[in-house]
Amino acid sequence: MTMDHAHGRLIVWFSLLVGLLFELMPVPDIVLPFRPDWLLLILIYWSMALPHRYNILTAFVMGTLLDVLLGAHLGIRSLAYSLAIYLIVLNFQRLRTYSFLQQTVLVGIVLCIYHLIVFWLQFLLEHATFSAELLWPTVSSMILWRWVFWVLRRIRRRYKVR
């Protein structure tokens, strides 16, 4: 492995760490229902850009790490992240050719699927109740997708991450 490849991997893992920190960062109660899924957005980008390197295993590891840090039932986000990233990796070539609006809608659908899987698993384990607030993070994440895509793409091109 050359130094450039190692450098690129460090950049990707650093961006995933930043996404993990954004997930854990405290926010005011009024903003909490709208908190975007930072880590999942970053995972979606890297899975679209480099699906041969960052895919379902990366999503599983990051989901497990998030479950541990949140103190949630182990495996809930691991499974949900893995299924969401599976859908992205399965269609990454199509997603790359879509217009930005189409990409945003499909990312929103994947985010909805993620939230519904997390709700379903929490319902099975904790008897959670469904509310419309469950899908507000999807809306805020869709709004931020363009910005996240732009920033990570610039980072990938500037540092020649492959």
UniProtKB/TrEMBL annotation:
Claim: Phosphoprotein is one of the keywords in the record: no
Biological process terms in GO annotation: regulation of cell shape
Pfam families the record matches: MreD
Entry's localization field: Cell inner membrane; Cell membrane
InterPro entries, per the entry: Cell_shape_determining_MreD (IPR007227), MreD_proteobac (IPR026034)
Domain of life the protein comes from: Bacteria
GO cellular component entries: plasma membrane
Alphabetized UniProt keyword annotations: Cell inner membrane, Cell membrane, Cell shape, Membrane, Transmembrane, Transmembrane helix
Transmembrane segments: 6-25, 37-54, 74-92, 104-122, 134-152
Predominant localisation class: membrane
Membrane topology, as annotated: Multi-pass membrane protein
Role played: Involved in formation of the rod shape of the cell. May also contribute to regulation of formation of penicillin-binding proteins.
Similarity comment text for this entry: Belongs to the MreD family.
Protein name stated in the entry: Rod shape-determining protein MreD
